[in-house]
Specification:
five-stranded antiparallel β-sheet, globular, Dna Ligase, domain 1, single chain, D-amino Acid Aminotransferase, Chain A, domain 1, alpha+beta, 32% helix, 4 domains, Rossmann fold, 27% strand, 430 residues
């Protein structure tokens, strides 16, 4: 088989790496890819939003399956366009991808389906949203405990946690007036802030059968101790002990099954990866958000542990035959991904800085360095994004996996490189 992976991040590098291990696969292409995918597959210079270019490439090269990694082409309808051409493609349709593409749509569906989530209000104008805050809180320092969210896609950054009235009004201004996240802020949500541990539960579904994957835990805030601004994710580990077997059964019965049924009732049947971002509150698990693809960086530690041929899973999903698939096989050892980022991220950062030490890190046992924001410049690997690398390791325990991941991190250098030092520490108290 020949397979095309669409995307250029750490998730897509992990997908290409795992797909290439299948004995059924002869060639893996990645469009547009990065410096890491160039090692494990063949890069194709086609952007994820170039639907016509991607379809033409698939036809000309007789690609058997296209795997769409990131959310943007899914929300824009790449799957629909490929299906219209009779091509095999893994991922949800445009209508189904609105579950991630619009937080307002998602919250309204959660309410309709009676799936536990935070209370919320939606607003189409900054003035209305500001008035809502001002009517309820008098002083700038009043405690509000709300989360302000841009409705559309914002690369994981359109969510602002606010402690005070003045912070809430500033967040509304950034999203709706200053348009910091562009068109994503044409609508916004003011939501009650939930407290507890966050966890990610991913499942693969063909619209009928749901195959739940081991729970992972992402680390969204930029700095140690979950401080600083939200990011696309600074690291993840899998499995997480905060979701035990009983909690997983509850998530499946109260969240995953109802959302798949709700999407079907809404005539938006869902096929692909369903990602539930959960907050484990004192009142039980509640949904923070849904994503419609593998998480990045959760994908990296998940696929590090997967033993089953990923191509079999992808094909069964496309063909509606997940019920015929044998239970997935996993390495019993936990894995950890530490994201190395550019100085300034999640704000402005410089690109083009030379990365050294990649070979030394890659030679360490049980380590895989997944590239995210990298590119090749005259044969040298340089930075090309905010989140640059996902250094992933597997070990006999979480602490051993962590040690191996950070040992690899220490081998890698570029000017301004940084990372969180506490990825997976939350697991040590369990």
């Amino acid at each position: 088989m020949k397979i095309l992976v669409v995307g250029s991040g750490g998730r897509e590098h992990a997908l290409a790496w795992k797909i290439a291990q299948s004995p059924r696969v002869q060639k893996v292409y990645v469009a547009p890819g990065n410096a890491g995918t160039a090692l494990d597959a063949t890069n194709v210079p086609i952007e994820v939003t170039d639907t016509e270019g991607l379809i033409a490439f698939v036809k000309e090269n007789e690609i058997d399956i296209t795997v769409v990694g990131p959310e943007v082409p899914l929300v824009l309808g790449l799957v629909d366009a490929m299906q219209d051409e009779g091509l095999k493609v893994f991922g949800p349709t445009k209508a189904a991808a609105e579950l991630e593409g619009s937080k307002v749509f998602c919250k309204n569906l959660l309410r309709t389906a009676d799936i536990p989530t935070a209370d919320y209000h939606t607003f189409r104008s900054a003035d209305d949203a500001s008035r809502y805050i001002k009517d309820r809180y008098n002083e700038p320092t009043d405690t509000v405990n709300v989360v302000i969210k841009a409705d559309g896609l914002a690369a994981g950054k359109g969510v602002i946690v606010c402690d005070t009235r003045s912070e809430a009004l500033e967040a509304i201004d950034r999203i709706a007036h200053q348009k910091e996240f562009g068109e994503a802020g044409k609508e916004l949500i003011i939501e009650e802030r939930l407290f507890g541990q966050e966890a990610s539960v991913l499942a693969i579904t063909d619209g009928e059968t749901i195959v739940t994957l081991p729970a992972a835990q992402d680390h969204k805030p930029a700095h140690d101790g979950d401080t600083g601004p939200n990011t696309g994710g600074m690291g993840a580990y899998c499995p997480t002990p905060i979701i035990d077997e009983g909690m997983m059964e509850r998530v499946e019965s109260d969240v995953l099954v109802p959302i798949v049924h709700a999407m079907k009732r809404a005539r938006r049947p869902f096929k692909g990866v369903l990602y539930a971002g959960m907050m484990l509150t004192s009142a039980g698990p509640k949904v923070l958000e849904f994503n419609v693809r593998f998480g990045d960086p959760e994908c990296q530690p998940l696929l590090m542990r997967l033993k089953t041929d990923l191509v079999d899973v992808i094909e069964a999903t496309i063909d509606g035959k997940l019920n015929e698939l044998e239970p997935l096989q996993w390495d019993d050892r936990p894995s950890i991904c530490v994201v190395m980022a550019s100085e300034g991220y999640p704000g402005d950062y410089q690109k083009g800085r030379l990365i050294t030490g990649l070979d030394r890190a890659s030679q360490l046992p049980d380590v895989k360095v997944f590239h995210a924001g990298t590119k090749l410049d005259d044969g040298a690997v340089v930075t090309a994004g905010g989140r640059v690398l996902g250094v992933t390791a597997i070990g006999d325990s979480i602490s051993k996996a962590k040690l191996q991941a950070y040992t690899a991190v220490k081998e890698i250098r570029w000017e301004g490189a940084w990372c969180r030092k506490d990825i997976s520490d939350k697991a040590l108290g369990y």
